Amino acid sequence: MPPPIDTVLGVSISLPGRAVVFDYGEVISFTPSPEDRARLVAASGGPAEAFWAAYDADRDALDQGLLPTTDYWIGIGAALGFDWDIPQAQLMWSLDFRGWTTADPEVVRVITDLDAGDTRLALLSNAARDYGTPFRHSPIGELFEHVFVSGELLLLKPDPAIYRHAADVLGLRPEDLVFIDNREKNVRGAESIGITGHVYTDPASLRAFLESLA
């Protein structure tokens, strides 16, 4: 049995003059599990295919800050033929939030090793604005110099403007940023303005990539 995560000793990773910018969902956090997805469908009371179609239909508008969170969930209920109230919307939001925020300790360890090496850190996530506070004020959030949430910026990855905004706020040239995301199109968007990108697949490959830059 592996030791608890807090007893595992990491090795610092130092990238002087650069900042590493992480995506959150499916990079820092695990992919929502089949059990997480099943709980959402069961709580919706509708068939899985119809639920996921409604879930995806307005997700970009939610993540870009163009659709309020409550309206998003009540809209899903309406698409399924239900008149959801606030308690039902809150239940759905809570189940969804859990699925997208359960962190992978191995990735968190990579981030703490970067912090130990005095590497600047930031977060850039396509997420609704209600994710901003937990992203900033969770234990790992305190390691990020800046947290950029698409729903607050009214921009979505892979729009080059969102990466330029991050570089400007960090006071760095794009070529001094390293961007980590699990979606290739988002990495390519960052690379289009000169940022060094890495398509995330697993913690070991992430660590090897970052150590290759040190």
Automatic annotation (TrEMBL):
Keyword Hydrolase assigned: yes
GO molecular function terms listed in the Swiss-Prot or TrEMBL record: hydrolase activity
Pfam families (UniProt xref): Hydrolase
Signal peptide annotation: none
Keyword Lipid biosynthesis appears in the UniProt entry: no
CDD domains: HAD_sEH-N_like
Source domain of life: Bacteria
Cited InterPro entries: HAD-like_sf (IPR036412), HAD-SF_hydro_IA (IPR006439), HAD_sf (IPR023214)
Protein name, as recorded: Putative hydrolase of the HAD superfamily
